[in-house]
Design goal:
- The complex is a heterodimer of chains A (213) and B (477).
- Chain A has one domain.
- Chain A contains seven helices and no strands.
- In chain A, helix 1 runs antiparallel to helix 4.
- Chain A is globular and about 50 Å long.
- The N and C termini of chain A lie far apart (55 Å).
- Chain B has a domain of 218 residues.
- Chain B starts with a helix and ends with a helix.
- The chains are: A mainly alpha (213), B mainly alpha (477).
- The interface between A and B is large, with 42 and 47 residues.
Chain lengths: 213, 477
């Protein structure tokens, strides 16, 4: 099982780059869903023993990050009839380059960190940093409100990977609480998105600029 | 016992959904808030202390916070009854339920003794307060809610990353990976310092976003500007206090690990920067609710500045969060009454508030003097304590900048406040038939009375509790 961790994390990093380079919203959401499923699988792989709690966390993670949240987002874009992100604040190619640079930098940076013995050779910490960086890029460079939600999700995914280094330390209830908060958070954002669409007939955040000094 | 304290508001949250009548439902608020407050008093002053439960527990620090939050919510809930009855056409089911959910999560965040549980509770506070911001259901409040949710969620996500870093710091230090605060403080000397520092930075940025410290404050003017006044009072006094409690807990861990110099300098810098930025935006501010939001940014800066200075500054900061929260209650609720009467929060449209609403206008003016640190109100003494701590610590530059910024804020705020309060009532004054009544006045008067009391006389139980809390933060096991 442990041998799967590396390949799965590489897959997560590739999905990061895919997220940064594509303009189709369904593809972006599906990529984040795929990431969620991989994270669930990683939870099992990182730990040798199969505990009941580990299996439960895996199932709930896959359910929340891989099925429920992407489902809500896909429904939102279907209702709003939007397919593409047009005119992001930074173009797709520069964004992709920034993402690749960030990934490289986190791989190098992680070597200089004082890590515990079991994590020195593992990709977990650099992958977490690279994914957090990707989340930030998506969050700040895209115009469509829904893409910002995806950016937030990817950011959370990165943090989740960091959390995998500490599965023994975080009690089960807290892990569940974090996932529940994430789910409710996206749910509330979904409701607000719906109101934005009804109010402005669009999900472009350029409409949300009435409040300023 | 303590768990019951968290579940009580959740029960009322459920009741709010069950009750069908839009006119009767607001009564739940003062009832629920009152019971919560009585319960808090019983816990704090009861002969038998509540058993130290593993996950929820009382310590000298959160005792003070819990008492304050419960009082704040109770007074705001009395006001809420008056406010909601005055707006009979607006459905208030979700609003009432969210208020109780917010109270429940706030209580949980205060009592939580576990790093992860506290994070979950504070994030839940944010989520339950989002519907409160959207009460008016117009494009402007929509925008404010969106920004609040997105910025708040990203900030709190960073705090989660910081929590993981702190846990990693324990793991790397070879500790049993317990994330209870008492264990982290008790074994702090074993923590791995590079990870501890990284985690403090992330946690400070993350929970600082919730507090509304500059430069992470951008959601604040929009949210406080568009939300009903009572929500502003609850956020400015409640949510920010919970986030401040979180910052204090991590500061305590750094202190116990004997690695606190960098945390202190960071807090002093961010504190002064928040004050400076707020001062800049308060000068010539044309929107009196946004002005209050910037005032909140300023006072959050003062809070972390006091902690950063240390010594008596810690005591001053703890006293100041109470003073600031109570005074914000006066200002936000009075501003809400003025807003209701004039139907506008722009200075151009509003003047002569003291004639249109004599009591509210006077309270607003008194609140302004209190918050800008005029004697004999409470904030004067807490700010003075922080100033004295800076001077006696030999940090004359910090003290000088602190004073200069307080002065700029006073001047900036006064032009807006006087424009609202003085003069002939503007044409808009007669637009709505709003009149002050018991429910919309009594809470403000009590708030102001408490602010005045804390300025003239600090009761022994409170000063003793604050001393204990300050000692608790700076303790070295």
């Amino acid at each position: 099982m442990h041998t799967l961790v590396g390949p799965l994390l590489v897959f997560v990093l590739l999905l990061n780059l895919f997220l940064l380079g594509t303009s189709r919203l369904t593809a972006v959401i599906n990529a984040s869903a795929a990431q969620g499923v991989i994270l669930g699988a990683l939870t099992l792989c990182v730990h040798e023993g199969f505990g009941v709690w580990m299996v439960l966390i895996t199932i709930v993670t896959i359910l929340v990050k891989g099925v429920l949240i992407p489902g809500m987002l896909l429904r939102a874009i279907r209702d709003a009839a939007i397919r593409r992100e047009i005119e992001p604040f930074i173009g797709f190619l520069p964004c992709l380059l920034l993402g690749a640079l960030g990934t490289g930098a986190s791989l190098i940076f992680a070597r200089t960190l004082p890590l515990a013995k079991e994590h020195v050779a593992s990709l977990l910490v650099p992958a977490a940093m690279a994914t957090v960086w990707t989340g930030f890029l998506v969050l700040t460079t895209r115009r469509k409100a829904i893409n910002q939600v995806v950016g937030y999700l990817v950011l959370e995914n990165g943090i989740y990977i960091m959390g995998l280094t500490l599965l023994h330390a975080m009690p089960f209830m807290v892990e569940m609480g974090v996932l529940l908060d994430l789910f409710v958070g996206i749910f509330v954002m979904g409701i607000i998105l719906n109101h934005i669409r009804r109010e402005f007939s669009s999900l472009d955040t350029a409409h949300l600029s009435a409040l300023k000094e | 016992m303590l768990l019951l304290h968290v579940l009580l508001p959740i029960l009322f949250c459920g009741l709010a959904f069950v009750i069908r009548s839009n006119e009767k439902r607001p009564w739940l608020l003062p009832i629920g808030g009152g019971i919560h407050f009585l319960f808090t008093c019983a816990i704090l002053f009861g002969k038998a202390p509540a058993p130290a439960d593993a996950w929820l527990g009382l310590d000298p620090l959160n005792k003070v916070v819990l008492g304050f939050l419960s009082l704040l919510f109770f007074l705001c809930s009395v006001y809420a009854r008056g406010y909601l009855v005055g707006r009979p056409k607006q459905p208030n089911r979700i609003f009432t339920a969210s208020l109780f959910a917010f109270l429940g999560m706030l209580t949980l965040a205060t009592l939580a003794q576990h790093l992860g549980l506290m994070w979950v509770a504070i994030e839940a506070c944010t989520l339950s307060s989002a519907p409160l911001l959207y009460f008016n259901q117009n494009p402007r409040s929509l925008e404010a809610t969106w920004k609040y949710l997105l910025i708040g969620s990203v900030g709190i996500a960073l705090a989660l990353l910081g929590s993981y870093f702190l846990a990693y710091s324990a793991l790397h230090g070879g500790m049993s990976a317990s994330l209870f605060f008492r264990d982290l403080v008790g074994e702090a000397t074993h923590l791995s310092h590079p990870w501890l520092r990284a985690s403090f930075i992330l946690l400070f940025v993350g929970y600082g976003t919730k507090m509304g410290l500059a430069p992470m404050h951008t959601w604040k003017p929009d949210a406080y500007g568009e939300a009903p006044g009572l929500v502003g009072a609850l956020l400015a006094g409640g949510l920010t206090t919970a986030a401040f409690l979180a910052v204090l807990r991590f500061f305590q861990i750094c202190n116990a690990a004997h690695d606190v110099a960098f945390a202190r300098s960071m807090m002093v810098t961010i504190g002064l920067f928040s004050m400076a930025l707020a001062a800049v935006f308060m000068v010539r501010q044309r929107d009196y609710k946004r002005m209050l939001a910037y005032s909140s940014v300023e006072h959050m800066g003062i809070l972390v500045l006091g902690i950063g200075i240390g010594g008596a500054g810690v005591f001053g900061s703890l006293l100041h969060f109470i003073n600031n929260g109570l005074t914000k209650g006066v200002l936000f609720l009075a501003a809400a009454n003025i807003h209701r009467a004039y139907g506008s929060k722009r200075v151009e449209d509003v003047s002569g508030a003291i004639r249109r609403l004599p009591v509210t206008g006077a309270l607003f003016l008194a609140g302004f003097f209190a918050i800008t640190g005029s004697p004999p109100f409470g904030p004067f003494f807490s700010e003075f304590t922080i100033l004295r701590a800076a001077v006696s610590g030999g940090r004359f530059w910090v003290a000088g900048l602190f004073l200069a910024m307080l002065f700029v804020v006073f001047v900036g705020m006064s032009s807006t406040v006087f424009a609202v309060v003085q003069g002939e009532p503007s044409a808009r004054a007669s637009q709505s038939g709003y009149k002050d009544n018991f429910f919309t006045l009594a809470p403000i008067i009590v708030f102001l009375g408490l602010v005045l009391l804390l300025g003239v006389y600090l009761p022994y139980p409170l000063s003793h509790a604050l001393q204990q809390a300050a000692g608790f933060i700076e303790m070295n096991p």
